[in-house]
## 1
Amino acid sequence: MSSFSPLHIILKENQLTGPNFVDWKRSLDIVLTTQDYKFVLLEDCPAVPGPDALEPVREEYQRWMKANDMAKCYIMASLSNVLQQQFENTPKAKDIIEELRLMFSVHSRPAKQEATRKLMNTRMAEGTEVRDHMLTMMGLFYELETLGSKLDHEFKEDVILASLPPSFSQFKLNFNMNKMTSSLPEMMNQLTVAEGIVRERRPGNVHMAEAYTSLMNARNAFGHDALRAGKGQIEFVMCEARTSLMNARSAFGHHARSA
């Protein structure tokens, strides 16, 4: 029984009042996910098994019914007495959630508009962490969906790509040209890898510029005074500058040359 106390605390501290529907739903999702009951909010009830149904079919139906009963208990425990009375005869947890969503739509409309505004205006700044940006975007998607908005996966991908800074232009090009599609966690990992590549290029650009500047300075230094300078000194400095430039090119390849 003690293992349930943290869940009890979550529900007790996040009772549904109306305007807090999004926060309440988030807390409820945590509890139901922890207990492996959330699937009943997303899936329809399986058909009642017939007398000749196989055992796996019966087990799947019983699993859904048990999870639905438990999910309903958690939902009811986090409602006021008035709401509990209203939904005590509603058989499916999924239907209770939908009714509550409709009931508090007046309160959620301004919240939905604000979440939409944030989503469309959120942009990742250069130099910030792409993982933090993705978590922000995913949180806004969740908020809008909790409030009843229907967001398809392609829309989410497009919004994320549009919110990235210019340093991710190559990633966006590859993503679009290859017609890629990924779950949001997978996309986060892909962007994190791309972020590492972008960061690796930056020191290469610096080294390349320094090597190129060294070569130009060597040429300028001995351009007009080549006759006065010793031949060995000219060759040594020019060779050193060229070596530095070639090392930069070798280390950072085409990206260092084109940056």
Note: The chain has three domains: 7-106, 122-200+208-228, 230-258.
## 2
Amino acid sequence: AYRAEQSTIKTQENGGWHSDEELGRLESLLKDIESWYQSKKIDNAVQQLCADPILKPETLTRKLKEQERTITNLLRKPKPAPKPEPKKEAPKESAPKETQENPEDTAPEGTETE
């Protein structure tokens, strides 16, 4: 279940706001807990039935809460405020345009005006 939630967390590269370092810590925590659980499960399987269990519910609950706390902290991390856009200056009034009294003077070369 937590692996599915982890896949919804995006890094800064793909539009998210979580750093690769934060996601790396989460990934290493998940791997550590999985390897811990697998080793305890194997130890518990080879143990005699009359002995005290190695894997106790309290221990398992504590590990899962640690994992849940880390994921919840990442999911609750607020999205950073967008960077303010530079203010656009109002277009300055350019110098008054010269009035064209005689359009013949401004005709392109090679064209005749009548």
Note: DSSP finds three helices and no strands in the chain.
